[in-house]
Amino acid sequence: CGGVLISDQFVLTAAHCFPNESTSFISVRMGSINISNSTDCSGETTRLHTSQRSDEPEGNAAPNGPVVCAEVEDICVPLQEHCSFFMEDIAIVKLKRPVNITNHIQPISLPENCDEPSLIAATYIAGWGLAYDIDIIDNEAFEDDDDTADKEVNVITFSPSTLCQRNITLINKTACQNQFSTNVPHYILCSTGGSCSGDSGGPLVYESNGAWFLVGIHSGGDKNCSWPEAPGLHIKVSYFVSKLIMPFMGLSNNSQTKKTDICATDKDRIQCVTKLYGAYSGSVE
């Protein structure tokens, strides 16, 4: 899964990235766009407590490289009303220690005053999800009296090693509901697609007056990444700023608010994520 840093100690991602109870095996990797030649953050022998690593093999790592592997202290998923296709598929992750903000590691701005980009604004998604090449082959007819040619389209999918971005187009709620033939909750943003398996939890962003703002967290989309028939789904971050994000970030400073007031239990989170995978005809295994 992807994610996006919103402060020196908190990351936003998708709730369905956490189908299991334990967070001990989870690390957050920051500071590099290339994942092809660096050691995985997850193993006990390689996981670091926010110490820096280069984007080189472990044995050749520079002592002050740009990559940070941060352990997770806690996860908060909102209390759910719809544990299915339209669940509130967002999670805020607290790191065990704050990370140093550098040229390679910077938090994005949250939406201000519930501002949202217009439907014609340039919005982008980013991630290491599956990418694809389209190869069109012309098969000339063998008959002398046939001037037609059949075209064969081959779609080749691959896992990119370098972070990819794509410009996508938001679509209005009415058009989205017409395509799904059902009501779409107000915390869902719909787009023309463009994401693929592995992009979950990644950011949907746009630029305004020289600053980049977080619009949404990618939740899901059509299984056909190259020619999607259904809209892409993104969780609207502005809806959760005052409801989830700021309260969870302030828990340590506000004794009147309890985690159970804003976050689902591990049991409820697992049950809800399992139902979401079922709605997509998938499995958490």
Automatic annotation (TrEMBL):
GO molecular function: serine-type endopeptidase activity
Signal sequence, start to end: none
Cited Gene3D superfamilies: Trypsin-like serine proteases
InterPro entries listed in its UniProt record: Peptidase_S1_PA, Peptidase_S1_PA_chymotrypsin, Peptidase_S1A, Ser/Thr_Proteases_Immune/Dev, Trypsin_dom, TRYPSIN_HIS, TRYPSIN_SER
GO BP terms: proteolysis
Compositionally skewed regions (Polar residues) per UniProt: 40-51
Region of interest: Disordered: 40-64
Domain (Peptidase S1): residue spans on this chain: 1-250
Key words of the record: Disulfide bond, Hydrolase, Protease, Serine protease
rRNA processing found in the keyword field: no
Matching Pfam families: Trypsin
Family: Belongs to the peptidase S1 family. CLIP subfamily.
Name of the protein: Putative trypsin-like serine protease
